[in-house]
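Changelog excerpt

This revision adds worked examples to the README so contributors can see how folded entries look when concatenated. The first example is reproduced verbatim below.
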Amino acid sequence: LLRMSINNLRRRKLRTGLTVLGVVIGTASIVVMVSLGIGLKEITVEQYESSGSLTKIQVYRNYGMGGSENEEDGFITDKTIESFKAIPHVKAVSPVLSTYVQMRQGAYEGSSRIEGLSREALEEIELGEGRLPDPSSGTMELVVGPMVAQNFWEAKTGRGFWETGEQPAVDLYGKPFFTMFQNMGNGDENSQKKYLFPACALVDGGENGFSEYGYQIYTDIDLLKTQLKK
């Protein structure tokens, strides 16, 4: 039977060649299509992961959407955090306390948002330089994103990144910032108290200078609470 099969294949060389070629092309096509599918899936997942975790859900307070007359019913409190922790499959819950500030450094001024995070959440930030804030220091230390400099402009000319296309020469890590908390006074900038906060770390911006934490400033949530009480 083997000898007969070989003889028949030799007798019909063209048909045999075309059959073999068809099998090879079909197999190669399947391998290529599967490889493309896997590759596209990996690229898509990487793109989503570059802008944020795929397993992280951000929950915001209810701004009067629930129909309750009491505004405080929509606040996120410590009790809310505990209820989130009790949900099945939730691995960790971290509160976020945000406030907008005006900042100055040398000839530049700008605005940014400072977010107070728990220690657990701060440890998820990849640092390019420095260390995380020390809660026992008594001073609100800042972890600064590499893109925060784009929020600054020259105080005299008012020209900044969005007009010139050039990154302002703000030292995000080496020098402290004079910081003024918004809505803390009568609107007169000269009468607002200025605080001097050091930067203890710079967020790792990756190869392209972009990361999930690249555009804001972070600190320990307890340090921010203490500062806001002042």
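The second example, added in the same revision:
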Amino acid sequence: MSTGFGYYQIQAEIGRGGMGIVYRALDTRNEKTVAIKQLILENVDPEKHKEFTERFSREAETASRLSHPNIVKVLDVAEKEEGYYYVMEYLEGRSLRQELSKKGGQIGAAAFWKILKQVAEGLSYAHSLNVVHRDIKPDNIFILSDGRVVLTDFGIARIADLEATNITKTGANSTRPCSSPL
């Protein structure tokens, strides 16, 4: 296990995915617990390292643009030759997948609507900044101890502004409405 990332002292690994590892860490400047997502390329074809690094950087940049109670807060981003990582608020609670598993795969209507409302508020805010999450699933919906719901993992989000030039091509019927897949 790593001993730290700059001001951040790693305490434990709390998750692992296709592109990285998430750690619980201590910000030694203010003694606050944070989460760090580190890009890991050891199992990636070396020819794809640049692509994965760009994707990870885009995820960090996209998530750092968003400031909403229902979206995980990005606090710091580090892109160094020896490693790429970003720091997020540490969330106390569990994923919607864990919650569903705990309750036998079902939750009551009142709990469902409370979760859905907060997910919709977070997504609405992201969409207002032209950010489309594209990976909403129970693993990426986090329920805090106080009931607040937070969207995480903007790894395959896209920024609609960057793709706007591809929506209408020369000679295309520009009066036809375009839709954007979620």
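Reviewer comment on example two: Residues 76 and 87 are 5 Å apart (CA to CA). The longest helix spans residues 109-128.
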